[in-house]
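Reopening this ticket.

The earlier resolution said the output was attached, but the attachment link was broken on my side. Pasting everything inline this time so it's all in one place.
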Amino acid sequence: MIDLNHGSGAVYGGTGIGSVAERVNLLLDDALLAERRAQTPRTYLGASRIGEPCARRLAFEISATLPDEGRGFDGRALRIFDAGHVFETLSIRWLRAAGFDLRTERRDGGQFGFSVAGGRIRGHIDGVIVAGPEVGLPWPALWEHKALNARSWEDLVKKGLKESKPLYWAQVQIYMAYLDVPVTLFSALNKNTQELFHEPVRFDPTDAQALSDRAVAILRAVDAGELPPRIAANSDHWVCRFCDYAQRCWEQTP
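Inline output:
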């Protein structure tokens, strides 16, 4: 047995275990960020972003504008995204084991999705349930999955998708509009406890039309070299405080 207190060579702090952890994490973060930088920047509006409350931020995003210095994705955020895919894979397996005919890929291996406005508005769904047990839903139904921390998950269960997570509400409304499916089963997994919550979301044509019109207006503004209005009248608005483009927006643009 290794005795960590007598001649083991393990030293806590400075040049020992602490610095090893920091070096490993730095290497992981660098690798993930390099992968991210190698991806082609988006020049289209994704369905997952159309519900973003600030139209100007979306204009920055789709015009490949660089975030403010020190802002943007970091290694931790990218690890969270990757972990979300793992949790999604688990939920897929569980649903299939329970008898739901959940399809997540086309026959050619690609994702189900849509592309309109010359490819400038796009989206890819997590899946579609084409048949399954009687649970009070018509089939087919689109399927969308999110992995949330306990606090966010509990808020969703309490308030429902539209009030708790308007960004996700907008995402599934756009999916239903362009894929012509009137219902989505929205599944949310609590990453802390592995509890699952499933909310049926019905198509709302009024909301979907407003979101689609908003997306088109943003694209037209970008094409014209214009910036849509800010969401707020001053920079201390809570949305602005968390925005990756806040400095550029308030100090460098009118």
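Reporter confirms the inline version is readable. The radius of gyration is 22 Å. The mean pLDDT is 90.
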